[in-house]
Amino acid sequence: MILDQQLIEKHNNKLEKKHNRAFEFISQDIDDVEELIAKLQKFQIGIPSWALGTGGTRFGRFSGPGEPGSLEQKFEDVGLLHALNKSSGAISLHIPWDIPEDTARMKELARSLNITFDAVNSNTFQDQPQQEDSYKYGSLHHVDPKVRKQAIDHNIEVINYGKALGSKALTVWLADGSSFPGQLNFREAFQNTLSSLQEIYKHLPEDWKLFIEYKAFEPYFYSMTIGDWGQSLLLANKLGPKAYTLVDLGHHLPNANIEQIVSLLLMEGKLGGFHFNDSKYADDDLTAGSIKPYQLFLIFNELIDGMDLNGMEHATGLGWMIDASHNLKDPLVDLLQSVEAIKIAYAQALLIDRVALKAAQQANDVVKSQEILQDAFRTDVRPLVAESRLRSGAALNPVLLFEEEKLRDKLITERGLRTIATGL
Ligand code: LRH
Ligand code: MN
Ligand code: MN
């Protein structure tokens, strides 16, 4: 490991005085700061294996130096992130981009790095070299049962990999859709998708969840067969108790009220998990919280409200994951920034005076309701998040430590300059 605990301690010692002042200052105004810190310490956000290399756009890809060239190196990257922030203790694999051939060895490696396995993801949106049938016109919704069977079998294979590794969920994102009116019979496409998912569902172990991701557009531009949360929820309800809707923040039409969607899905007990990212226009996959931090905070407000009402544990009640793929920044630094932004939004939402908010809502006090929310949002909670890291043995400022210790240069020394990671 290119980072040892001593380096973290040296870094923390340097920053501790200033941090302690800031932490003491904010703590004075918080009723139960210990409880809040404990929640922050527990909160873990899964890292997708496809975000560890520099992402591309459909126009080009500019791979960075020292990228992970193997699955082992991807594990090492997540281990490094987790050592820096102690909040990224899980990896989510996308198969076949990442095939864990020797699952026993992979499990052992993950254990040694202190990371676990998040949801496994299937891929029926690209044709693979050995594949018999093409997904050009879709996969689980395809008009040809043979193509559907191929896609179903792939999902079962992914479940089997996940079982061997210790994952507890399968995430299905379909690129199925149509680009021209008349191309598809919507009802048949939906019914084919449902019956394919029913086949996959039969192979889910008892303690697993099936996450159904929706997306309003792209790669098809007229219709998507699972295009919004209504269609995902419909499928999840028809499939049964192990099926849930997964919300990817970038998969909505502009200005969609995602916090309202989240609140109703939680009410129905059908919110499964999250793919965090941010966007200005569409599925931009930018760093979480970099464009609309208030939206992220409002989402956490609804999450906490709904989870508390349902008696759900914040850290484990839902699947928390990042889904962002970058073409400008160092992917590791970017992931550190995303995790930080998510924890900041969570901490801010934990500060909301919920009793006062309820009273203001009941009294139709619009001004007060807004004041209560914005009071929490405008609080600088960074010392709380940093304190949670300090207590977990992580770095007070992970991005700074990454730069100071030139961790990418160390990875380049190990891996070389010209590296290309698998992924989007
Ligand atoms: C495409 C997408 C989707 C999946 C990921 C692998 O939009 O980003 O969100 O989860 O690819
Ligand atoms: Mn996603
Ligand atoms: Mn996406």
TrEMBL record:
Name under which the protein is recorded: TIM barrel protein
Highest taxon in the source lineage: Bacteria
Keywords linked to the UniProt accession: Isomerase, Manganese, Metal-binding
InterPro entries the record matches: L-rhamnose_isomerase, Xyl_isomerase-like_sf, Xyl_isomerase-like_TIM-brl
Residue span, Xylose isomerase-like TIM barrel domain: 100-285
A Pfam family: AP_endonuc_2
Lineage, opening ranks: Bacteria, Pseudomonadati, Bacteroidota, Sphingobacteriia, Sphingobacteriales
